[in-house]
Design brief:
Layout: H1 3-17, H2 21-33, H3 36-64, H4 67-86
Helix pairs in contact: 2-3
C-alpha cells in the first residue's frame, strides 16, 4: 500500500465532499428516518460503487489518454456543466 497516495486521495476527497449536496441529503434522510446507521450504510455503499466506477474509468482512460488531457477534459466538462446550470439549460 502506498500510504502517500492513500492520504493524498483521502484528503482531496474529504475536502471536496465536505458540505456538498451528498451530506445535505444524508442529514435530511437521517433526520427524517431516524435511522442514522441505515443512512450511513447506504451512503457509504453508494459512494463505494461510484468510486469503483470512477477508478475503473480512470484506469482505462489512463492507458489511452495522457493524464494531462484527462485533467483538461474534466475541467472543460465541469465548466460546461456549470454554464449549463447557470443558464438553466439543465
Amino acid at each position: 500500500m502506498d500510504w502517500k497516495v492513500f492520504f493524498m486521495t483521502f484528503s482531496a476527497i474529504f475536502v471536496a465532499e465536505l458540505a456538498d449536496k451528498t451530506q445535505i441529503v444524508g442529514i435530511g434522510l437521517s433526520a427524517k428516518s431516524g435511522k442514522p446507521f441505515g443512512v450511513w450504510l447506504g451512503s457509504v455503499s453508494a459512494y463505494m460503487v461510484v468510486t469503483l466506477i470512477s477508478v475503473i474509468i480512470g484506469t482505462v482512460l489512463g492507458k489511452y489518454i495522457s493524464p494531462e488531457l484527462i485533467r483538461y477534459l474534466g475541467a472543460a466538462i465541469f465548466i460546461l456543466m456549470g454554464a449549463l446550470m447557470l443558464f438553466k439549460i439543465i
